Model the fold of this input.
Amino acid sequence: NAGVTQTPKFRILKIGQSMTLQCTQDMNHNYMYWYRQDPGMGLKLIYYSVGAGITDKGEVPNGYNVSRSTTEDFPLRLELAAPSQTSVYFCASSYSGGDSHQPQHFGDGTRLSIL
Amino acid sequence: AQSVTQPDIHITVSEGASLELRCNYSYGATPYLFWYVQSPGQGLQLLLKYFSGDTLVQGIKGFEAEFKRSQSSFNLRKPSVHWSDAAEYFCAVGPILTGGGNKLTFGTGTQLKVEL
Done:
């Protein structure tokens, strides 16, 4: 009963380095999302995907890239890390079909510091 | 554009006291409303949701919320708070109709502290 799994849980990067945050879900959800959470700011949507091979920008996509080659996985890529990307990153997934959709399920987050 | 306002950044209540967390939303269509809770170092857990039917909805952990269309509000309540309820609470709004990614807009959260 894993749900949404994010790795790593913590990471420290140097400015200019790159990394990939991993997200996988085992609920056969078609929709997946990446958010960042900054203190006092709530959650901001970075990118989302409505199915394998389909991705789209959210509210704050600059500096990030995503891909969705399978239903289960939705990695988030930081190419040139900047201090402004220090944040907690959450992956979420949900099912949408027909005339209904289900609430989003969240992973436990990745805490990323860029120094 | 859609938005969610949680006017209380911090709330402190005594254990056993009642609780009400405020949420106001702005949305151009019939909204799908959610309350999530986040414990320290954890992800968000769904407390309850509303999109139609009875305007008073029950959730997990003894929480309930009331949808008031005329006030564009979806306030969260609990009759008697337990120390384990200390956490951050987020209200969110999204579309009822499927398609378009079903994107949610979150409020900035209310941090609840419970005094023993």
Summary: The first strand of chain A starts at residue 4 and ends at 7. Residues 6 and 106 of chain A are 9 Å apart (CA to CA).
